[in-house]
Write a structure and sequence with these properties.
The complex is a heterodimer. Chain A is of the alpha+beta class. Helix content of chain A is about 50%, strand content about 10%. Helix content of chain B is about 30%, strand content about 30%. In chain B, strands 1, 2, 3, 4, 5, 6, 7, 8 and 9 form a nine-stranded mixed β-sheet that branches. In chain B, strands 10-11-12-13 form a four-stranded mixed β-sheet. Chain B has a two-stranded antiparallel ribbon with strand order 14-15.
Chain lengths: ~600, ~425
């Protein structure tokens, strides 16, 4: 027993674990990185080629080959493509379970060259490919081709087909089944021709998808109105459209054994801290999972602490946000199939900012920002404070209000905590049901919510009217949190504050704030404490990451905590015309 | 490791759940007192009167908004216990706005009660301390709000009226306690009373203090609370202040004296003051007087007797010139300023001389003297509050008339018999 208590109460040094920390880098980083690249030049150069090239087919090939080597069960896939078409056909039929599989299309045809007939077939998924492209630019040239002059050398035929016949921008020849299969699985078209031991994979993706629309959850009045969609390449293009810089690297990673979800990691080669990129790459590449559908899942796989009160990656639908953060030295991760792009590392201040803050003129931006902070304060603390004040600190309420609360509570049968929890749960219920409710019934829910829960509950004296106001303000306030994830976190914490307020009044609220403060200070996002720049104090001359924003022309440096390779964002005088004005005035004086 | 965490969580949870919210009270589980009255009891030390707010009546606006109860008891908290037995909800003082002592009790000394209130955490420092010319019970019984639905607000507004009438003073509990404990100043409380008149024919000039002051007729401030010639409306009145020495009431001052006290003390804001017309003794000039600067005090000890000087700087706007004489003229304005200065100075000296035998340094001259001593022991040897009785007073009043109101020049009324001037 004594030992147990001792173990419990005495401080024991925790095991030292090496975690990722975003360290300082000044001039040293460049040297370090050079060294690192020298160590394994082949790998590095290979990778960078792939990255620069944006060809994610290459990446699929590369990574899958790597995976397969480790997996013993996948030996078959390593088989080389045969010269005999019938072998290939048999193999592919087996792989795709033809004819069991309904949506795979196998089209056999003949290529007639002068007097010789070469059998061939193509293989693609119906619905994932663009039929017109296949008809016009694959089948037509191959079938109607008549002047094929074969000069014995196999290699030449391959080159000839590739160079002259198939007008495809992304056409890969390969001698392995796996790569063709992967390509077909992702909306490509496999072309097999008799007599040659390679197959062609043409990129003819053409599935139905959503267009670029307004972002649903992060709307602004001022600023770009485009949002990400589900298509990876559309999303990367949306970012590239803003950052027209060849140094913007889109590095591809495939995640998921079954889903093989392509993901892209976006960063600026000459800005982002290399150790950060390395860490992100390490985490992404090490993920072994069956399927990955949304970036929300990836977020959970990437974050350091699953129970932290602060989101450690920021999800956004807005390309402008992603572009701005990447330009500041962060990393974006796009998941194919998810319109939400992840950003890391993030701080609390990032999460509390709306993109509009940057687009608005300074005074308005600050007004909006402080209103938002007020809303956040309400959403987190108001119900707790109400309970604390009404059950412990009645002297704080203005006398008139005390009397009106007392009069309205006179007929209410529950203690105010129960009353409040009842209303909060009801509100959460409306909110949850509101998301799932079918569109046409939507307005009905509003009426039910407003009438039943508001008026009727008061008239039936189940709750007091003042409480409806509290819950309503809290609800409105919670929508002011710009980041959905953080908003949810506050929604959960709010209940904690209600309990603490009911249990110990202001003492409880203070305790809660203290604990929350500890949790916040303790949270890290990719090696960056989320409470920066106030938690650990850092240089504040960088601009956008403070509660008060500097004018745009004064935002001269990138965030200190990101330790970017180049932390100057713009020269000290970014509005050259002000200098010119001075000069002009000086000249005028002389005259 | 897991066991440890579970154990810790259990300890924290059970300590939270076992203590739970043991001292939490819903708002509707309490009865809020808005006024507390303390009288000398017939058979015991105290007659304690509580005025309870009735929130249902207050919010609906129907019927009496308060309920009063009186109990005879030895001490304040004993009385509270007794009252709690027959009032269904727990009595709560956190919203008490005023504590009224009867004059009789105040003269015996109230400092122990003030101590009890300062020590108790329920009494708020912003509560007003008042002395009733009659009994406290009578005052509370008659303090019915006319304009407000909420009686608490009624008290608050009424006791704050000194900000624009000047006839009482800032007598909050904290202020009272601070002054009562101070070795260089004396405390004062608001004087309250109940109006005796039923009919305007009953008005009696004997109830005014104008004669002893040498005024021809009662001016607006020449009354104590409970003596104002008025009928109808609420019976309760707030006017004048009561001076204390060592927690015992030693004297009372009427409205005008309270106004001069505020001017000298530094809390004066603004009010209307009637000045006898220097050109025509039958007429008045009405000024809206504001404090220009805070008053300065200066004390000199000559032959071991203090000479207290004060400098009061006032600014005024003309509201009415009954005589129609053109005082607005830059040549004549001096006449009016001098008359106002003279009038105010006379009143102030009278007030100060009245405080002298009471040992009541209400205006805080002692503060200036205290600053001249380096050591506390030396200052204590002065026995200022005792010494105050030997004081001589000099008052320097400066009135600057800034604006003539909306009329730039007075002109007599034109009539068939020529100009009419009062």
């Amino acid at each position: 027993m004594k030992n147990f208590l001792e173990n419990l109460l005495l401080f024991k040094e925790p095991k030292q674990t090496e975690k990722f920390i975003l360290k300082e880098n000044k001039q040293d980083t460049e040297k370090d990185s050079e060294k690192a690249s020298n160590k394994n030049p082949s790998q590095k150069s290979n990778k960078s080629k792939e990255k620069d090239g944006d060809t994610f087919l290459d990446k699929i090939l590369g990574s899958n080959q790597g995976d397969d080597e480790q997996e013993p069960g996948a030996e078959k896939k390593e088989e080389k493509i045969s010269k005999k078409l019938s072998t290939n056909l048999k193999y592919m039929k087996k792989v795709y379970s033809i004819p069991k599989n309904g949506d795979i299309v196998l089209r056999a045809f003949d290529i007639v060259v002068k007097d010789k007939t070469i059998p061939a077939f193509i293989l693609f998924y119906d619905g994932m490919t663009d039929r017109e492209v296949i008809n016009n630019y694959i089948l037509t040239p191959l079938m109607l081709l008549s002047n094929l002059d074969i000069k014995g050398n196999e290699r030449k035929i391959i080159d000839y087909i590739k160079n002259h016949i198939l007008p495809q921008s992304q056409l890969n020849e390969t001698s392995e089944y796996t790569s063709v299969i992967d390509e077909i699985n992702f909306g490509g078209c496999g072309i097999f021709i008799d007599g040659i031991d390679v197959a062609f994979a043409a990129d003819v993706k053409g599935w139905e998808h959503r267009n670029v629309e307004r972002p649903n959850s992060e709307q602004v009045l001022r600023g770009p109105q485009e949002g990400f969609t589900e298509i990876l390449r559309v999303n990367t293009a949306l970012v590239r459209k803003i950052l027209k810089d060849e140094k913007l690297i889109v590095e591809d990673v495939i995640i998921g054994k079954r889903s093989k979800t392509p993901c892209s990691m976006l960063y600026l080669r000459d800005i982002t801290n290399e150790s950060l990129v390395e860490e992100m790459r390490r985490r992404l590449e090490s993920i072994k999972i069956d399927y990955l559908i949304d970036s929300g899942e990836l977020e959970q796989l990437l974050e350091e602490s699953s129970l932290s009160v602060v989101p450690q990656l920021m999800a956004t639908e807005r390309p402008d946000m992603v572009a701005a953060h990447i330009a500041d030295g962060k990393i974006g991760v796009i998941v194919h199939g998810s319109p939400f792009v992840l950003l890391a590392p993030v701080t609390l201040v990032d999460l509390l900012q709306s993109p509009e803050d940057a687009y608005m003129r300074l005074p308005y931006a600050h007004l909006l920002r402080f209103v938002r902070f007020l809303g956040i304060f309400f959403s987190l603390l108001l119900p707790g404070l109400y309970i604390a004040i009404t059950s412990f600190h009645q002297e704080m309420i203005p006398t008139d209000l005390v009397f009106s609360i007392e009069a309205s509570r006179e007929v209410v049968p529950f203690p105010s905590v129960v009353e409040l929890l009842l209303m909060e749960v009801m509100f959460e219920l409306i909110r949850e049901a509101g998301i799932r409710i079918p569109g046409p019934i939507g307005p009905t829910l509003g009426i039910i919510g407003a009438l039943i829960l508001g008026q009727a509950a008061v008239e039936a004296s189940i709750v007091s009217p003042i409480l409806i106001i509290i819950v309503a303000i809290t609800g409105i306030g919670s929508f002011a949190v710009p980041n959905y994830s953080l908003g949810l976190s506050f929604r959960v914490l709010r209940f904690g504050y209600i309990f603490l307020g009911a249990m110990a009044g202001f003492l409880g609220i203070t305790l809660g704030l203290f604990i929350q403060g500890i949790l916040f200070v303790n949270s890290k996002s990719f090696g960056v404490p989320v409470t920066i720049p106030t938690g650990p104090k850092t240089a504040t001359s960088f601009s956008n990451n403070r509660l008060i924003r500097l004018p745009l022309w004064k935002q001269e440096r990138r965030a200190d905590y990101l330790n970017t390779q180049d932390d100057t964002k713009q020269p000290k005088i970014s509005r050259k015309w002000t200098e010119d004005n001075k000069k002009r005035k000086g000249d005028g004086d002389e005259e | 490791m897991n066991k440890k965490i579970v154990f810790l969580i259990l300890v924290i949870l059970s300590s939270a759940l076992l203590t739970s919210c043991f001292d939490s009270k819903e708002i509707d589980e309490k009865a809020y007192i808005i006024a507390l009255g303390l009288d000398k009891g017939k058979n015991n030390y105290l007659n304690m009167t509580l005025q309870l707010a009735l929130p249902n009546k207050i919010t609906s606006g129907e019927g009496e908004s308060t309920s009063t109860t009186t109990v005879e008891t030895p001490t304040l908290y004993a009385g509270l216990n007794m009252i709690n037995t027959y009032i269904s909800k727990e009595v709560d003082f956190t919203h008490c706005k005023v504590v009224v002592f009867s004059k009789e009790l105040a003269q015996e000394g109230i400092h122990d009660y003030i101590h009890a209130m300062i020590r108790g955490r329920e009494f708020r420092g912003s509560m007003f301390v008042a002395v009733s010319t009659g009994t406290a019970e009578e005052f509370i019984e008659n303090a019915t709000p006319i304009l407000e639905m909420n009686p608490a607000k009624s008290y608050e507004m009424n006791f704050r009226s000194y900000e624009y009438t000047g006839f009482t003073g800032d007598t909050t509990l904290t202020n009272f306690y601070m002054l009562a404990e101070c070795s260089c100043r004396q405390a004062f409380a608001t004087l309250v009373g109940v109006n005796p008149y039923e009919d305007s024919d009953e008005f009696d000039p004997k109830n005014s203090t104008f004669r002893e002051k040498g005024h021809d007729r009662p001016l607006e401030g020449d009354f104590y609370a409970g003596k104002i010639p008025k009928v109808y409306g609420t019976k309760s009145e707030v006017m004048g202040i009561a001076a204390f020495d060592g927690g015992r009431m030693v004297g009372e001052f009427d409205g005008q004296e309270a106004l001069f006290h505020q001017m000298l003390y530094g809390t004066y804001q603004s009010s209307y003051i009637s000045i006898p017309d220097p050109k025509n003794p039958d007429a008045f000039v009405i000024l809206n007087v504001n404090q220009g600067r805070k008053p300065t005090h200066h004390v000199e000890m000559i032959n071991d007797a203090p000479i207290n000087s004060a400098k009061v700087q006032l600014e005024a706007d003309i509201l009415s010139i009954q005589s129609g004489f053109n005082y607005e003229n830059t040549d004549n304005i001096q006449i009016l300023e001098n008359a106002a200065e003279e009038h105010i100075k006379k009143g102030m000296l009278r007030f100060l001389n009245k405080t002298r035998p009471m040992h009541a340094d209400l205006c805080g001259f002692g503060r200036d003297l205290k600053m001249k001593y380096l050591l506390w022991e030396e200052w204590e040897k002065v026995h200022w509050l005792k010494k105050y009785a030997e004081s001589k007073f000099n008052v320097d009043v400066e009135v600057k008339i800034r604006r003539p109101g909306l009329m730039v020049r007075s002109a007599p009324a034109k009539g068939s018999e020529g100009d009419v001037m009062k």
